[in-house]
Write a structure and sequence with these properties.
4-stranded mixed beta sheet; 1 helix; mainly beta; 4-stranded antiparallel beta sheet
Length: 144
């Protein structure tokens, strides 16, 4: 009897979990909580990877990733986060209108980070398909 009760509870708990797959990936507002929003738009990335070459340790690398709203609705960037605290993305606060070019500023602080560097920036927006992961890479020479 206890085994049956345990089996029923296990099946019930698994059934109650929402384990559906998200159609457009985990980083899109276009499909959240099982609802597909009609205000999606599309985006074309002009700069998805930036190779800053070589810098001396302690240098701050600043780059503006460019993108174009190729859809018919305003592009809203809800958040942007980097793979490391040494890299700080600054998203546009206002929606990017259809046909306009927007930028996402990223500042990488190379202090205490000698050697090869590879950072990623994840953007959450209402773009469908989802905004691709942005990349920042280069080489940090140790301070002498």
């Amino acid at each position: 009897m206890k085994r049956w009760l345990l089996a029923i509870l296990l099946v019930g708990s698994l059934y109650s979990c929402d384990i559906r797959r998200v159609k457009n990936g985990p980083m899109s507002l276009a499909h959240m909580d099982g609802h597909f929003f009609d205000d999606t738009t599309s985006v074309e990335i002009i700069d998805s990877t930036y190779d800053f070459g070589k810098v001396t340790e302690g240098t701050k690398v600043v780059y503006n990733y460019r993108f174009v709203n190729t859809g018919k609705k305003p592009l809203v960037i809800a958040s942007a986060r980097a793979s490391c605290g040494c890299t700080v993305p600054e998203k546009p606060e206002e929606p990017v209108k259809p046909g306009e070019t927007g930028t996402l500023k990223v500042v990488f602080n190379s202090a205490d980070r000698p050697g090869p560097t590879y950072k990623t920036i994840t953007v959450v927006s209402n773009a469908y398909p989802a905004f691709p992961v942005l990349q920042l890479k280069g080489e940090v020479d140790a301070k002498k």
